[in-house]
Amino acid sequence: MRSRLQWIDGRGEHAVVARTRAYGAEVLVKFLVLVGLLYMPVLLFHWGEWIPFAVAALYLFWELGRVSSALGELAGLWNDQRQERQEPARSDALN
Q1: How many Cα atoms occupy the beta-carbon half-sphere of 39 within 13 Å?
Q2: 19, 25 in Cβ contact below 8 A?
Q3: Using an 8 Å Cβ cutoff, are 1 and 17 in contact?
Q4: 6 phi, psi to nearest 5 deg
Q5: What pLDDT sits at residue 73?
Q6: For 38-86, what is each residue's pLDDT tens digit?
Q7: Which residue in 32, 29, 28, 51 sits closest to 41, CA to CA?
């Protein structure tokens, strides 16, 4: 699965994490569509009205997990990049 976050390398110690689309709006629209689709059986079978919202909340937790893993991946890239920059500086300082 492709990450929705993009690493933009900056100067020196600065880097920017940019999103490729309006992420929050996209998740909200998907949540509302999912609730709407799940609400149809509630109307048809007279189930509890809270069920669509509870099931659609699972989607929000799934998206939260995706964002968390994407940010973890970006943090790993950041740490690798900083470590590569610091290693030559250390070896120059020791010489």
Answers
A1: 9
A2: no
A3: no
A4: -125, 135
A5: 86
A6: 888 888 888 788 888 888 899 999 989 988 888 888 888 888 888 877 7
A7: 51
